[in-house]
Design a protein that fits this description.
The complex is a heterotetramer, with two copies of chain A and two copies of chain B. Chain A is of the alpha/beta class. Chain A contains 16 helices and twelve strands. In chain B, α3 packs antiparallel against α11 and α11 packs across α13. Classes of the chains: A alpha/beta, B alpha/beta. Chains A and B meet through α1, α2, α3, α4 and α5 of A and α1, α2, α3, α4 and α5 of B. The complex binds pyridoxal-5'-phosphate (2 copies).
């Protein structure tokens, strides 16, 4: 991590804010103090310099506006990134979550002064329960992985509360997302990997063999990361329950199931929601998300504290008084305050309110329709290893007999056709995986254009493979030297050496 | 079906291509008895109705900009957010992108996060920053994970200062359940007036990390250099949980020798939003970067020799390391991190220092005026930043109820967490509080004292 | 100096390059006795203070979304604005660009305006639309300019329907002062119940244009086909001032034979904003395009054979034709025109029709209920759209004062402009008025009638 | 105007909304009616079809977002367009003008319910008077040209009120903006063009010769469109006043004069402001603007109606009651309602409030500094025909001895360097004019980069002129076939012919 970057001779497309800094500029003026002056604390406690950049407002606006144009985004095009549910994020949600009544409330205000927030949270808990078939929901987790961690803590606490202390193994299918085993790893538990069968279901034999009284439970994504609904889901759950295990559902793929089936009804005991997938909370270039967790009745007491509850019932014309309640055997707090209220909960609330039961079912039906349509049109060109009716996504192989073209090359070449590539190399059980999730918000014209591009690319792979190897060629930036990044580890930049001398 | 752009005719064409009769037939794999439940949810609102409904909910709150005067802090602060911050966050290219897995078409996010990392390093005085954690509390918990991993699971004790935010301490306890670590020092009955250096008595050679807050939960500013030296002497790491605004003014934890500096970025241009989302910053020394959780952006070049940025050292993360990853974090707080970067770019060197000093000045004015009230008084005498504990000599909830009648949200009730601080409130003052507001607080509290 | 990014050192360097000593020396050409006046203005507010000050002013109003129920129209209407409209208008690339003089780097604006022109042609049933005028009233005045030019200044009379919006008539009168045209028909004492065809009596062979409103100022919808034929028979042109929402439902003026159709685009997704800015649309027949004022976007190709758009027929405009241009218009309402294009794209064929029908239904419900009140009644019997004249049988200002006490803004006082309509108000109802609001209006007006 | 565009074979970079339409889509859902149904009017009154496009919300957002990226703008770069004052538009103004209290007030509401709006307008009238030195200001005009028309109507009305009816000639310098003569043309008056002298001032001899008792007045831009302050301004005004004429100031260039000199003090009688230039109202890709007009005391009675006035004085604790007043001899209304309140007045008010007297002076000083700095650095490379200390802008010649490169080529080539070109071919009195106005919101780094690009281009003009003739080559769109546009006159598009058959 040299102070001087070794990219010194590289062309700079957009300088960093440190490069742009010039002594004396400022982007905002603050009022002068209106109180009598107090002496500063002793100098030993103070810092002598603050090496932050100095820019005028116009510099900041141009810089970040230009940076934004270097991004591909849902607002600029089709983003069929499997497992991520990159659906269109309605603009009204951006307005509702910015209402001053939401923006400027402090999490520790007296509950009497924030009944709007609490009513919204209470309602959302109820709605998520109804959608998923669970008995209790916490809105606290910050993202899917955080929800998983919450869920696994609840599973552990449940067993512990029954003095069932020898359970240390978590069953996880080989197709699972990395956060599942990682959540288990954070708990000091052991992962037992369960293979998939040739139809993409959990291998029942292997599962049966693994089920014993050391099993904490199983973490299953269903539809799984192949986009397939497990054809023996009830049997799977029966086996896990049979050995005293708890069934965890990774709700990342809930976009296939709204109004279609409720995981709680199938027998799942715990599940996290990804509000930033299913319920259209924008992904924000990496976050924030929101990962509420639903649990069956026997686990409600273990939910994180606090939940929103009714602390005084409604009376005559008076609405109920909402407040915070602590579950009896709560695992504790998952984060400070009450979850991603503004960025996550308000948007998801707005979205659900605008869909209602029929609209939610439409979402899943059309998400599944779009995925199957793509699969049907692509299966003759790209091998679909587990080829049956899929749910909201499917996985194809990004390789061709006798060609050295890889999934990565196809992904990069898609950029030249103005599409975001699908997820590559996940799930791990498919060779050169291309995991394609169109979502319900794309129209047929877009899907057709995407198929046409992929077919064209398959042709190019045969006739002009270098077009793929060197792709993308029409984007502002080309392929990256990832090795250099990892070797040199330049992880931040600074003001120039003699910066202050220019003041 | 506003958001579904497929007409009935197109739908039928598509079903034909797939080779199924109806939408319902796509779901034959689902156990029939649970298929197509009737959901008991309100019928759909149109956009116009939803806008109205949500306005109604928002207006059912009293907010601290137009309805109430607030002196509440305790981990979230009412600072001025320059207009530009939200204007940049509203760029669809930023907020509707995913994690920048495809760097060729994600340089906007990548460079912005690289800048965020740089800004956090500059603020904390540390070598490296990750791309963010969920919030300050979870960042502190992840510091423990790092320390636990650093000692390969051999040190199983975590020493937590009693003056660390109570909710942060709670989160650390929750996180540590799985690993069954011992959490020490986290004692609400601890002597809060003792020298912070006394914490060293808890640190032993089973300790992997000690966690301090700066300024501490009561707003007090200590130089932790000596304590950190002593903890290091026991072989353990030190994590300092810092308020980023305070770092514009006070000595950095980096310069005191801290191994990890974390905190909540909310004061840096992020609305309080009833508690979230905010952003947890996480900075450390370069020798620990391989153990650090979370995403990391590094500088490189593309094949046209252009300077560019990529996610790097991804082998640390869950999608590669799976159950052996330090953390399971995947989605982080990207957009909020971007918001803090925009905020810091705008305020810069001088602006952030000015905000910090305004907070300092106003808090000290408030403290001085309040301590003149008969029967009230400051709890501690150490230097403080923008929060201080005030003894009000009667139940805080009564006092706050009275204040609320005058449109004021009083301080945080410290008795909730510290039995010895019954009848004490934690008052926070920022640049948003005018002298007039402070004088009103003093006046109403004087009434309370005399009435 | 938030917005000035030049440091003192840079300033001095620059002065050095220029070769003057100080900033003040740059102004030596200015008469010394008037140089550098002390301006008596309040000292500068910071952003935080300005945000506060402006919120205070905005809150000093009672607005028709959260504070008051409104039945006021008369040229500006309270419609629902879908969220997307403003999100698009907030794109810096749109609102901080200038008029698209450099088409290579202005295709965003150019294509959007081309689409706006197309949408306006589709709505009005006309061949061509310009890129916008200031508002509906000035667009009507510009129609006169066009007609005057069309007849090379030989026809000097303008016939204006008395049922054209009073403020539009006033603007036409103002505009015509210079040319000293005769404005006829513009008579507040005209018989307002007469057949609109009677206006033909005013049209003679000195008349260059007749101007009608559709629906007329009282909300009435007439088929003007016959009248337009008759005016044409006198050799004059006809301009119809239309409400664009009504055009989703009612026969187009284009299909009635109008030569020019203008109007105010505010109902198409633009906030009332206390009266502006809105946008004046201006559409006409292709044979008059060379006489039409204002900018015009046309389709073409660039040198890479890409479809593209440019400002075309610019030789009509002031910067080329100077004193012989039909109009002096330069800056127009580009961004607002874009807003209407976004609105119309969102609502589309079905949505706009639905909005129009909602207005129609609710207005008719209101009219029916109100006409049942003792002593009140509808003034006219012709088909109407979403506005109607109600006789309240007592001074409108008294009635409105009473309504305001109940949080209702009543209708426009027609007696201001039409002596014969003393004690009449013009009530507008849109999709924003719920049945409950209408019922409240009826209830309070019944009180007035009985009290 | 063929229904089928002759660009049929052209590549489509972004389809129009009509191209994108598909039957049955909609971008927003409206509530069902909540009132008993009324029959529709007779069919003869109704239209049978409404040929508007049909798009989903996502389609609309992607379309306009993509279109926006085809624009160059102040938020993305330097925009030194002479005469247009393309300064940075502070973001806070975008927030204040969108406060619900401003957005959702009806122009005909009872004045008691809109005292916030009226107080703002009253204050702004007062501030503009103070800044300009005039006795009265109307906020009604919609743009600069509209303000000119207003001003000329006032001049006419003044003479007429004095029965001075033979005045029909308006004196206008040859360097004037086209709107000046066009405003006069709309009045049926005659333009008399006054030449400039060799220092860029009004030619006093020619002026003197033209001044007689048929003169309405003179319209003068000062600093003029060469960016030069007239060195004999007091003499010029004396001559016009001497013959009974009225002195009109085109305030488009006021950005040079804030806190520097007040046109009213110099003797101007009427002047329009361009709030969208001087006071940072964004230009909106062509508008809306806002063009208030200030007048000296003897013209106040002629201002358009209504003005905002105090209709009940302040008393004790009560603020004054603001309302509308009608000037005694008003020329009438210039437009419906009260001017560009939300888009223009609120933003300008915010801007002035945030500057105060010192901040306003800074604006002009730095605008002039930046222009002179550019002029100093460029004068050796580009001929500056009127070369003296300029005000906020200056005009250079875009041509070189022995080269066929024109100003247009230089303008287009600047795009390849990521700059917006200066204004070309205006004012008409300079050959191949390049009119450069940097504004005060640009930093020295930007100015230097711009100079470097222009110097580089001058070199290219000599060594590789085709680089300029074919420029721009790095932008998404290249030079346009303007002749084709004018000849074919395709001014709108439609839904495809058999559109409804796809429903
Ligand atoms: C299947 C699956 N599970 C879990 C996660 C983790 O969710 P988050 O990124 O919100 O932490 C993801 C996210 O990509 C996922 O796809
Ligand atoms: C010198 C001058 N006068 C008048 C105008 C006309 O102003 P507007 O475009 O606002 O009508 C302009 C605008 O470009 C100008 O530059």
């Amino acid at each position: 991590m040299a102070n001087v970057s070794s990219t010194l001779n590289a062309k700079i497309v957009e300088p960093t804010i440190f490069d742009l800094s010039s002594p004396g500029r400022t982007g905002v003026t603050m009022p002068a103090s209106d109180v009598p002056e107090t002496a500063l604390p002793p100098k030993e406690l103070l810092r002598s310099d603050l090496p932050l950049p100095e820019l005028a407002e116009v510099d900041v606006v141009r810089h970040y506006t230009r940076l934004s144009t270097f991004n591909y985004s849902v607002d600029t095009g089709f983003y069929p990134l499997g497992s991520c549910t990159m659906k269109y994020n309605p603009k009204i949600n951006e307005d509702t979550c910015r209402l001053p009544g939401f923006l400027f409330t402090h999490p520790l205000q007296p509950v009497e002064t924030v009944q709007g927030n609490l009513a919204l949270m209470y309602q959302l808990q109820e709605w998520l329960k109804e959608i998923s078939g669970f008995a209790g929901v916490t809105l606290q987790p910050a993202a899917g992985a955080h929800g998983e961690f919450t869920g696994v803590l609840i599973m552990r606490a449940y067993h512990k509360s029954r003095n069932d202390v020898k359970r240390t193994k978590m069953l996880i299918p080989d197709a699972a997302h990395g956060t599942n085993p990682a959540s288990v790893g954070m708990m000091g538990m052991t992962v037992v990997t369960i293979p998939s069968d040739e139809r993409g279901n959990v291998d029942l034999k292997a599962l049966e063999a693994a089920c014993d009284d050391t099993v904490v439970g199983m973490m299953l994504t269903n539809p799984n990361t192949l986009g397939l609904f497990d054809e023996h889901i009830e049997k799977v759950i029966e086996l896990v329950h049979g050995c005293g295990g708890i069934m965890y559902g990774d709700g990342a793929n809930l976009n296939a199931l709204l109004g279609i089936v409720r995981p709680g009804d199938l027998g799942f005991d715990v599940m996290h929601f990804n509000l930033h997938k299913t319920f259209a909370v924008p992904h924000g270039g990496g976050g924030p998300g929101s990962g509420p967790v639903g649990v069956a009745a026997h686990l409600v007491d273990f939910l994180p504290e606090p939940l929103v509850g009714i602390i005084e019932d409604a009376e005559d014309d008076l609405p109920p008084l909402y407040g915070f309640v602590k579950p009896a055997k709560s695992i504790g707090r998952m984060k400070a305050f009450h979850g991603h209220f503004g960025g996550g909960l308000v948007r998801a609330f707005t979205y659900i309110a605008m869909h209602g039961p029929d609209g939610l079912k439409d979402i899943s039906q059309y998400a599944v329709l779009n995925a199957n349509y793509l699969q049907a049109r692509l299966r003759d060109t790209y091998k679909v290893p587990f080829d049956r009716i899929c749910m909201h996504e499917f996985v194809a192989e990004g390789r061709f007999e006798g060609s050295d073209v890889r999934a990565l090359d196809i992904a990069k070449r898609l950029m030249d056709y103005n599409f975001h590539p699908p997820t590559n190399y996940f799930p791990l059980i498919v060779h050169e995986a291309l995991m394609i999730e169109p979502t319900e918000t794309e129209n047929k014209d877009t899907l057709d254009a995407f198929v046409d591009a992929l077919i064209k690319i398959a042709e190019e792979a045969k006739t002009q493979p270098d077009l793929l190897h060197n792709a993308p060629s029409t984007t502002r930036f080309g392929r990256m030297d990832e090795v250099k990044a990892a070797r040199e580890l330049v992880l931040c930049c600074w003001l120039p050496e003699n910066y202050d001398e220019n003041a | 079906m506003t958001y579904i752009p497929i007409s009935p005719k197109e739908r039928d064409d598509m079903l034909g291509t797939i080779g199924v009769k109806s939408l319902d037939n796509l779901f034959d794999a689902i156990p029939a008895k649970h298929r197509f439940p009737k959901l008991d949810l309100p019928t759909a609102l149109t956009e116009m109705e939803a806008a109205d409904e949500l306005s109604g909910l928002a207006n059912a709150n009293e907010n601290v900009r137009s309805d109430l005067i607030s002196f509440l802090g305790a981990g979230m602060y009412n600072h001025y957010i320059p207009s530009v911050v939200d204007h940049m966050l509203r760029r669809g290219e930023f907020y509707t992108a995913y994690t920048p897995y495809q760097p060729e078409i994600s340089q906007g996010t990548l460079q912005a996060i690289f800048e965020y990392q740089s800004l956090m390093s500059a603020l904390t005085g540390m070598d490296v920053s990750n791309a963010s954690h969920y919030d300050g509390a979870t960042a502190a918990a992840e510091a423990v994970n790092l320390a636990y991993a650093q000692f390969r699971g051999k040190r199983k004790k975590v020493v937590v200062s009693p003056t660390l935010h109570p909710q942060y301490r709670a989160v650390i306890r929750t996180y540590m359940q799985g690993m069954e670590l011992e959490v020490a020092g986290d004692d609400p009955n601890a002597n809060l007036e003792s020298n912070p250096n006394d914490l060293i008595s808890q640190v032993d050679d089973n300790t992997c990390i000690a966690i301090l807050q700066y300024p501490d939960f009561f707003g007090r500013v200590y130089d932790y250099t000596k304590l950190i030296e002593d903890v290091h002497a026991k072989g353990a790491l030190v994590c300092v949980v810092a308020n980023p605004t305070a770092l514009a003014m006070f000595k950095t934890p980096g310069s005191m020798g801290a191994d990890i500096v974390v905190g909540d970025g909310q004061p840096l241009g992020i609305p309080m939003w009833y508690g979230g989302p905010s952003v947890g910053f996480f900075t450390t020394r370069k020798n620990m970067v391989h153990k650090m959780a979370g995403r990391l952006v590094g500088e490189t070049v593309d094949n046209k020799s252009q300077r560019a940025y990529v996610l790097t050292l991804t082998a640390r993360e869950q999608h590669i390391k799976r159950d052996r990853a330090t953390s399971n974090i995947c989605t982080n707080q990207g957009l909020i991190a971007l918001g803090t970067a925009v905020y810091l770019s705008l305020l810069g060197k001088k602006g952030l220092r000015q905000v910090a000093e305004l907070c300092y000045q106003k808090a000290h004015y408030a403290a001085e005026q309040l301590s003149k009230i008969d029967g009230m008084g400051l709890c501690f005498t150490e230097p403080f930043f923008h929060e201080f504990a005030l003894c009000v000599n009667r139940p805080v909830d009564e006092v706050n109820a009275h204040l609320l009648e005058h449109g004021i949200i009083g301080g945080y009730d410290l008795g909730q967490d510290y039995p010895s601080l019954k009848d004490h409130m934690l008052i926070a003052v920022t640049e948003m509080n005018t002298k007039e507001e402070i004088d009103t607080l003093v006046e109403v509290l004087s009434e309370v004292a005399n009435g």
